[in-house]
Amino acid sequence: MSAAKENELGRRDTGTLGKLMVLLDVVTHADGPMRFTDILALSDQPRGTLHRQLSHLVEEGLLEIDADGRYSSGLRLLDLASRSWARNEFRLIAEPHLRALQDLTGETVHLGVLRGSSIIYLDKFEGQQPVRMYSQIGNTSPVYCTGVGKAALSILPRERVAALVADLAFHQFTANTHTADTLLAEIEEIRKQGHAFDREEHEVGIRCVAAPIWSENLSLVGGVSVTGPAYRLTMERLSEWAAPIRKTAEQIREAMRIGLGPRR
Amino acid sequence: MSAAKENELGRRDTGTLGKLMVLLDVVTHADGPMRFTDILALSDQPRGTLHRQLSHLVEEGLLEIDADGRYSSGLRLLDLASRSWARNEFRLIAEPHLRALQDLTGETVHLGVLRGSSIIYLDKFEGQQPVRMYSQIGNTSPVYCTGVGKAALSILPRERVAALVADLAFHQFTANTHTADTLLAEIEEIRKQGHAFDREEHEVGIRCVAAPIWSENLSLVGGVSVTGPAYRLTMERLSEWAAPIRKTAEQIREAMRIGLGPRR
DNA sequence: AAATAGAGTTCCAAATAATAGAACAGAATA
DNA sequence: TATTCTGTTCTATTATTTGGAACTCTATTT
Fold first, then answer.
1. DSSP state of A144
2. Which residues contact B239 (CB under 8 A, 6 or more apart)?
3. Could you tell me the pLDDT band of residue A8, with boundaries at 50, 70 and 90?
4. Does residue B44 share a domain with residue B164?
5. What is the distance between the alpha carbons of residues B31 and B16, in angstroms, rounded to a whole number?
6. Which of A18, B7, B100, B143 is the most exposed, fewest CB within 10 Å of its CB?
7. Domain residues for A212?
8. Same domain for B128 and B245
9. Nucleotides of strand D under 7 angstroms from a protein beta carbon
10. Quick check: A157 pLDDT over 80?
């Protein structure tokens, strides 16, 4: 009797799955393991219902429950994600170019894609020091305070950027973090330049240059970036790298066009 | 009218979620993107039903569909998994000990947990060379051909091992890969020794030593291993490392007992 | 030690979502 | 143009999920 197949945000209804994913998100985004009652307080479901939903998630390995009855996210996710990552076409195509860019600059190179209003990091190449890689891969950051995020926005149609920015909550991470107005202004600048800087907007002492990568129909929008400590990456240095990073982005874009071109 | 809440394997029914997870598994385990018809052939659902299920998975970001209508696993999984990994208590507790073991041996150190009949790798520490880390983390390997797997089995009650082995399909990866009989025999040996070797049983040219780690009630069963190329890791060398690796495992076990001890 | 409160689990009729099958549409092929 | 193959939409039927209450177990209070 009700009606709509879409909710107010234009997302289509995903029925039972949608409700379970909300729970999975709640537990996964929590600071630590949650007790049944904690989750109950955040979900507007009756106890019996919530109990069954959590049981199903646990049974499937998406959540785990410890000896104290506290829920945390399950390792099944790791298995699924590692396969997803290993086979990701964008990442596979970009890999050699990222490696080359890392060799050229000696600094950390990231590959990211736009998903909703966040950038999700798909890959990372660091220099000499054996660093924890997983620490970044899979992480998400807001679009408005990362080089890749701003670069990605710069190639979207203005109305899409406006809609996206309108729904955004701007958290001020540093003194340089954008607000809606300054962000929109800078996007215009980036459109002309073809590359974006992150001037310690997310983390004090960290700067980066980024260039956008996109597929023909915008089904994939992302970017590459070179990141490093501000003392080493002066703005002059970053500006010098703008050209090579745009070139890398261009090469990846071209490789994807070919890679995806022949319809099998 | 039917009846059972459990299926033949003792797994409880997870309703709609279970059906969707089967699909997610099918797509995730495939070699490449799958077309609708490919999935239809593997699932015993009617077309209309399958179509809606896939739509829901795509809408939630668990699957993605490309311009050619081919399905592959979605990046939402990466985000969820990276959080799951970052907060994993076992991994956090084990980290310093793994690092120390890596320093001591100079070879690759793995942390794994038993999940069903597979070992899922939770962490990895390599030496000097900046190697792709994600390449192993989240990967799963059969219990019967990994050091960590055999070590883990050795601390399970015999009847659980027997049940697990009975359900296993033994794929012969190398000339040294175990069969059910040789595996059960070796498990007995490992019980006495306290450590397990992988004598090129999974991959030719790769050897390892592993020791089990487990929580009091066996809610967590896993192990640490030191892995490397056979030319460098002679059996003598591996035997020398058996004691330190057992000690590392013991330290992690103790740290977990304390870490999990005080019930908050 | 008994009583009480808190947390989690189980149960079942009612509400809702998923299903099966057929009809429909679009693209590729003959 | 006709035909087949692939994917999408629709609807009555069926199955699952829901919500609320009753129940169990454990910790806390009197």
1. G
2. B209
3. very low
4. no
5. 26
6. B7
7. 88-260
8. yes
9. 5-11, 15-22
10. yes
Tally of domains in chain A: 2
Q: Which residues is B211 bridged to in the sheet?
A: B224
Q: State the maximum Cα–Cα separation within chain B, in Å, rounded to a whole number.
A: 63
DSSP H helices, chain A, are 15-29, 36-42, 47-59, 76-86, 89-105, 147-154, 158-166, 180-193, 235-260
Q: In sequence order, which residues have a C-beta less than 8 Å from that of residue A61 and are 6 or more positions away?
A: A74, A75, A76, A77, B115
pLDDT-based confidence at B128, cuts 50/70/90? Answer: low
Residue B97 token pair = 């000990």
Same-domain status, A96 and A115: yes
d(CA B140, CA B122): 10
Residue predicted with more confidence, A87 or B263: A87
Cβ separation A59–B85 shorter than 8 A: no
Q: Is residue B9 in some structural domain?
A: no
One-letter amino acid at A173 equals F
Average pLDDT, chain B: 89
Residue A83 located in a structural domain: no
Of A80, A129, A219, the CB nearest to B24: A80
Q: Cβ contacts of residue B1 below 8 Å, gap of 6+?
A: none
Instruction: Write down the pLDDT at residue B129.
Output: 52
What percent of chain B clears pLDDT 70, i.e. is strictly above it?
90
- The burial of A261, by beta-carbon neighbours within 10 Å (0-12 exposed, 13-18 middle, 19 or more buried), is given as exposed
Query: What's the gap between Cα B38 and its chain centre?
Result: 27
**Separation CA B243–CA B235 (nearest Å):** 14
Mean per-residue pLDDT for B188-194? 96
Nearest CA in chain A to B112: A75
C-alpha R_g of chain A: 21
pLDDT at B264 over 90: no
